[in-house]
Amino acid sequence: MTMILNMRSSEMRSLETRSSETVSNSQLHSLSKAEFGQFRDWLYQQAGIHLADVKCSMVSGRLQKRLHALQLPGFAAYLDYLKVPAHQQERQTALNLLTTNETYFFREDKHFQFLQKLLAAQPQQQNWQIWSAAASSGQEAYSIAMTLAQQLGLNSRWQVSATDINTTVLEKAQRAIYSMDEAVKIPETMLKAYCEKGVGKDAGWFRIGQHIRQHVSFSITNLFKPDKQLPVFDLIFLRNVLIYFEAEDKKLIVNNVLRQLKPGGCLLVGHSESIHGYHPALVQLQPSCYRYSPESSGYVTI
Ligand SMILES: C[S@@+](CC[C@H](N)C(=O)[O-])C[C@H]1O[C@@H](n2cnc3c(N)ncnc32)[C@H](O)[C@@H]1O
User: Which of 49, 98, 132, 165 to mutate to test the pocket of ligand 1 (most atoms within 8 A of CB)?
Assistant: First the structure.
């Protein structure tokens, strides 16, 4: 791993501290059942995310600091605030706070083995286009990019497009700076070849190298209304996001992403997510890995 760094980890640290600011117990506002119901409807409208009743304390905990920042007397006032057309920025802030963004490098490593096999089986293919469709803070997109770099080289033409609905995580993804604790799952050779280790005041942090970052782009997209500018992809990672939606909405999203997948291309979902029967042209290759096979798509076996 290169020992150079021009990152702004101090900025990162202060951001992380800010996001974990807590409100003391004596200042806590209580969230009634009816107010929780309104937040649930609001979040469903914004992002299609379904909140179960047990998420009441999560909603209350995550939004307390916004009431304090805006000096509002309670959650009812915050709900009114969110309805004001000019308050788009606050709607995005609330959405950012209410999505769950857990992720890590090389999560569910069978998918990265699958990717390696896929690349090896189609050596003649140029210009691979891969979509990390619920990218969170970028670890998935960079894991894909490191796998492509190792298999195809840094100078070949390939691109990873990473999207999410949450702008806070997308900013973190674009900075590409992570704590060394997060590096544990990155294979040693890739860490050495593609990451830069922080020194001095940046010790304890690493940054994804520029030669990898230049192959990865980030943009905001709601999976219910995918950006029309997105290209068609060879492979789509749609992992650990369907769990937040109801059955009919899962199908809608799978159909939306399939419009962006080349015939013969593959779709990967999280290991605990099943999309069996969601689309007649989806053929399961192995658990959580599907081939999109509308008639007469030419493809090779992996
Ligand atoms: C748990 S993370 C999964 C991250 C990564 N795919 C992985 O498997 O590690 C789920 C991500 O989905 C995003 N998300 C939730 N609803 C979305 C929507 N309607 N459109 C786009 N992204 C959404 C969240 O913001 C969050 O970052």
Answer: 165
pLDDT in tens, 127-155: 999 999 999 999 999 999 999 999 999 99
Ligand 1: distance of its center to the CA of 193 in Å? 28
Q: Which residues are catalytic?
A: 62, 164
Residue 137 CA: nearest ligand 1 atom is: 27
DSSP collapsed to 3 states, the chain: CECCCCCCHHHHHHHHHHHCCCCCHHHCCCCCHHHHHHHHHHHHHHHCCCCCHHHHHHHHHHHHHHHHHCCCCCHHHHHHHHHCCCCHHHHHHHHHHHCCCCCCCCCCCHHHHHHHHHHHHCCCCCCEEEEECCCCCCHHHHHHHHHHHHHHCCCCCEEEEEEECCHHHHHHHHHCEEEHHHHHHCCHHHHHHHEEECCHHHCCEEEECHHHHCCEEEEECECCECCCCCCCEEEEEECCCHHHCCHHHHHHHHHHHHCCEEEEEEEEECCCCCCCCCCCCEEEEECCEEEECCCCCCCCCC
pLDDT tens digits for 169-181? Answer: 999 999 999 999 9
Topology adopted by domain 110-292 = Rossmann fold (3.40.50)
Listed by start position, the domains of the chain span: 31-98, 110-292
Q: Which CATH number is associated with domain 31-98?
A: 1.10.155.10
